[in-house]
Amino acid sequence: MAIRVSRTPFVGGNWKMNLTRAGAAELARSTAAAAAGRRVECVVFPPFVYLPDTIAARTADMCVGAQDCSAETQGAFTGQVSAAMLRDIGCCATLIGHSERRHGLGETDALLTKKIARALEAGLTPVLCVGETLAERDAGRAHAVIETQLRGSLAGHSEDALATLVVAYEPVWAIGTGRTATPDDAAEAHRTVRKTLASMYSVRFSEQARVIYGGSVNAKNAADLFAREEIDGGLVGGASLNATDFAAIIAAASSRRT
Ligand code: PGA
């Protein structure tokens, strides 16, 4: 039996390895202004070095997350940044397992489950990214891949500990390609996410967790995607670098009926 809950829309701006210090600060200010008064949880994810400048522009309507955190707590881990450090400087969230890290840097579900543990201990909202490659989709394995990634990345975490979890469904073939999943395809994948969460935990948990879509979301297609009851918002790369486009995406998420 489905439990109807109201989920606040979530919109993330993943700035990846872009911008300058001044550009990040300016984009942070205009994004915060765009989020003001909207019924949206808006989080921007700047490059690590621009976190302090972005955090300086944070408001009650926009908080700041990291693009990654270490799976370790502290010590001899050159180049890594711990979840506790991110929390210490004012971050509210962190991406976990973005496909550019899973596929580009070989991050495994076993590593990601440790990163989620560190994020939760530090009080950061984990935004866990899952999604299939084009070859996996063409082989009819999209849903199996999503399920395997969720089971692997969430292994060992209890439903209570994961209360803040956000899952971003990001088909790899749609990221940065201009090729968006259709609202139907995205909604179907989101049902797979919820079905998996329900089987791992409970129906209540699966209905409460936010599941957002990422992959070439833009100012034009956002409203159609967010019109689906399964899609609680978006994780936006390229279009989040344009303040006007991202403002339109925030507005589309905010006017979503839930
Ligand atoms: P994109 O990136 O919107 O540029 O496709 C999305 C993401 O990687 O989160």
What is the compact description of this entry?
This protein is α/β, with parallel strands linked by helices and 258 residues long.
Structure commentary:
By secondary structure, the protein is an alpha/beta fold. It has a domain at 39-91 and 105-124 and 140-183: Aldolase class I (TIM Barrel), CATH 3.20.20. 40% of the residues lie in helices and 15% in strands. The chain is built from eleven helices and eight strands. α5 crosses α7. The two termini are 18 Å apart.
List keywords for this structure.
258 residues; alpha/beta; TIM Barrel; eight-stranded parallel beta barrel; 11 helices; 8 strands; globular; binds 2-phosphoglycolic acid
